[in-house]
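Human: I wish I could look at a protein chain and see how it folds. This is the protein in question:
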Amino acid sequence: MTLQGRVAIVVGASGGIGAATVRALCREGATVVLAALPDALLDAIAAEVAYSGVPSLVVPTDITRREDIDVLVARTLVEFGRIDVLVNAAGIATRPSIADETDADLERMVAINLLGCARAMHAVMPIMKAQRSGSIISLGSVAGEIGVLGIYSATKFGLRGLSDTVRREVRSYGIGVTLIEPGFVQTSMNPAMTNLPSPDIVADAIIAAIRRPRRRVIVPGSYRFAVALAKAAPGMLDLVFGNAWIQERLNRDNDVRVGDPGSP
């Protein structure tokens, strides 16, 4: 599948993976719609796209508001007449222990990481069905295969189930649905970690999945063993991560990693 002239919406376009995906789509000649909360990061990536000369549209969007998502889709159709690709790249991090979160934290995590993706899919599916073509890519996580990060893992487990059911629902319409599951990559969610892969590795996986849809893609590939082990020997993971010292270390390291868990 060539991406030249294809219309792609990137939700979460101002984040590390989202911005890398926008750049990758531009290199492929796609028309890009940038959706994210209005801030300096969105302005910066929008300026990059404008400078490249690729047709684009910037739609400030809060994915916790259904009306914003409907405006995003409507403006894309008015401007370009079709929607070929949806990339759900918005997401926030959290602490591993659910006991450390407020009720508002829990609601916000579900609203952004899971419900926002579901709403975006719901909004574009009638259009893609009418076109009898399209590609929906969502950013899950290895934590959606291995439950160790509290409500964050729960939202990514949920996104895995959502992707499976939507893929089966739209298969006969020529619409591909792929879940990309990254491990740790170098983004603002991991400011204290070093020597991590660039978010470009995830963007490349997204481009490949648009061209050739797959059920799930784990990146970097080194995480595949951990996922296979979790499925083959869940009791072993219970023993390891059920250890009080491991839980204490996990929480301490993750507090350093995410900083303020309320920040996107």
